[in-house]
Amino acid sequence: MAILEAKGLTVDIPTEDGTVHAVRNVSFSIKPGSLFGIAGESGSGKSVLTQAVMGLLPNADIGGEVWFEGRNLIGLPQEEMRRLRGGRIGMIFQDPLSSLHPFYTIGAQIAEVLHAHEKISPAEARARVVDMLGKVGIPSPAERFDDYPHQFSGGMRQRVMIAMALILKPALVIADEPTTALDVTVQAQIVALLDTMRREFGTTVILITHDLGLLSSVADDVMVMYAGNRLEYGGAADVFRAPAHPYTAGLLRSTPANYRPGTELAPIGGRPPSLLATPAGCVFAPRCAEALPRCSSEPPPLRRYSDGVEALCWLEEGASMVRPVAPAAVAATKSAAPEPVAEVEDVRLTYQVGSFFGPKRSLDVLKGIDLTVGRGETVGLVGESGCGKSTLARIVAGLVPATSGRVRVLGRDMGTLDARQWREMRQQVQLVFQDPFGSLNPRRRVGAIIGDPFRLHGIASGEERRQKVRHLMELVGLNPEHYNRFPAEFSGGQRQRIGIARALALNPALIICDEPVSALDVSIQAQVLNLLRELQRDLGLTYLFISHDLSVVRHVCDRIAVMQDGRIVEMEATERLFSDPQHDYTRTLLSASKTLPAFAERERRSLVETRVAS
Amino acid sequence: MIRFLAHRIGFGAGVLLVLSAFVFFLFFVAPGDPARMIAGDKATESQLAQIRKNLGVDRPIIVQYGAFMQKALTGDLGFSYRNQQPVAPIILRRIPVTLSLVLGGALLWLAIGVPIGIMSARYVGSLRDRLGQAFILVGLSFPTFVLGMMSLYLLYFLPKQSGFTLFPAGGYKALSSNPVLWAWHLALPWMTLALTMAAIYARLTRGQMLDVMGEDYIRTARAKGLSERRVVWKHGMRAALTPLVTQLGADIALMLGGVIVIEQVYGLQGVGALAVQAVANQDRPIIIGVVLLGGVFIVIANIVVDLLYVLLDPRVR
Ligand SMILES: Nc1ncnc2c1ncn2[C@@H]1O[C@H](COP(=O)(O)OP(=O)(O)O)[C@@H](O)[C@H]1O
Ligand code: SF4
Ligand SMILES: [Mg+2]
Fold it and tell me: In this structure, are B281 and B300 located in the same domain?
């Protein structure tokens, strides 16, 4: 008996641009007490699917059936659905800060669940909430009952959300990217907590995530979605060891953790399709490395294999390009002591902060940083949010003055420059930011944005500037014909390329990449990482690479500095750091990040059934 | 907290000081001779000079301003040129009328505007939303003056013609003497004031609610299994409240300085009517007093709104 069973679920959302076909003919069945994973890049319809099931998308057209405890949830009367929500099915969302009401105490918000479903006195509700808060690991829960969400850290907030979702011991909990907004070490704790709770209460969990490493370590069954379609479905162990569908294989191949550091990644090319159109053939065909001629014209059949794995694909044998392509030769070993491009000596930064009622106090953001970046090197800076990574980046770039200490770029002290010299030095250090959209002015054309450095520094103008910009666009893999487009017309990965082109314009000595791929999906992330590597090889660039993702840092960096609370606690050559971490904090970080199991040789699974698309 | 209040009160005092200097000098350079106004056309030049000397307007302006401020700080705003009565009591007498009009009107416009805005946002795009939007459009496009005249015609004049008094045409009865009469007399002014303002508040509420209802915590509230009414009123409205309170503070403060058109239309002897008469009579001390009163209300409202902010938003506490 399945606890939740979807048959031919289809969700269409009407919008001004047309109908978004967010979920197309998806079926699955979840065993009681299991952990069911839904994977896929952003926009593949994971959230829409679950929210449609929960009746949280009032405007959507929903087709198909979803059976839960003997009832079809699709078309269930409002009031019955309301009683199920929170009572029988709990939900946990991605960003615990925005998902909690900022103006009510967390205790009141959790107690509200009780009051909505049971007749219960306030005192009794309070006791139960306090008990639950204790269970999810909130220290001194009785006192924290009356605190507001902003008074908790990200991880604690997510614990509050979990307490809220589980307090009525629902049969099913849907967790939609519950760890994506959290730091790695906290992610591991939250997943462990979900797992414990699942065992303690016998709850079934649907875990939505794009983190394949995480899924492979906890899920019983997985469903891989792409453009609203269920492309692959089966036991997690089977799927991750030997994916049957080319898309799943491509996702795994895009993951840096599956490669020897420093090698070229083999990402899925291109980008996801618009959900407004309905393709005649396979939705993945335009990006599929193994596509057959018929793929783009005829809808693929459903293949079922001997191990129960199902794939929506024309290939009878399943994906063949499973293993990462043979690693390219490791880049030539860098000279022992390259000439330093940037030197940071005992840099400290202290902010004065005042709260509304309290007096001013000082906040030490950086507590004595020493760091050297040599020419042609990539130095990684890892650490949790708030540890001071971006602040250090801005100081090195000369955008924020340090409170004390010295920053030298190309041997010149950034603290003693006059205005003209400062402008000169600004050319030498360029920044690439995380949010490709937020850092590009939406009302300016891409050509103008990339040409900005030339304009600001009065270097090239007119036709010459246009030529240079076109050249840069080509260099980063943008079509120069898109010179006159606006940022909004580009995808996230392309916008990051725009940011990189702009950073490259003036031949800087140092490029600081601040979480350059954190907002991107794994296939796009791999494309950008490859680009950064190629550029470094061809142009001899030097990078200071900031990221919280250890597998990414490991992949691109020669040396890594681990930052904690305004200090560098360990600084080591990449491989040494991974194989022999010295500092406790480094060890915590390393153990918290989940890696994928090794690929198996392509399994001799056999095709047992083919169901032709209707 | 104390520091904050002291800071805000100090700032408010500074604003009032600048405002007082500004109006004082503005009306000093305005044309018109107060002495001739008091003495009339037939006064001789020496009589006029004597009056100027009595008024003190023959002294340099800085000295006049200094003397004015010195007395103002003790609550003495001088004497009306018109009838030689002290200014402060003249203005204070008018305040209950304007206060009644504005506070009653505010309750009414909130009671009409906020639910319409919420309904519009809840059913965005539907017939109910379009009705709400139509209300907003109509309310915003009618000048208060026309609205006042229309309601006078429809609710006073027409019933009167057919022989009964539905509402009085205007006037004011003190709340303390007879609350029912008080409300009855103010009913038409309240409605007139509330209709335009309700449209503004419906629009504001609609916009706020549309934003808020898209927030993640609203989705959480629904996922908890709360009824839609609770989701909207407890979670949605609570978050939309802050900007509404800000706007309300500003509007009430502005209106307490005089609701000119409505006071004129309904013959209410409020601060606005006083201001109109004072300008017509070039009664400078009264004008300056009314402007300063408006300034005081705005400064107070700002402090109150800031304090409410702190009460409403735990994040800034
Ligand atoms: N309320 C909505 N209105 C219109 N389109 C939506 C809405 N919600 C999601 N979509 C679209 O549906 C698609 C699937 O989105 P989503 O389920 O959020 O993807 P995922 O959770 O897999 O990242 C996306 O193209 C998204 O833009
Ligand atoms: S059906 Fe064709 S295009 Fe689609 S995944 Fe399979 S091989 Fe690739
Ligand atoms: Mg999602």
Answer: yes
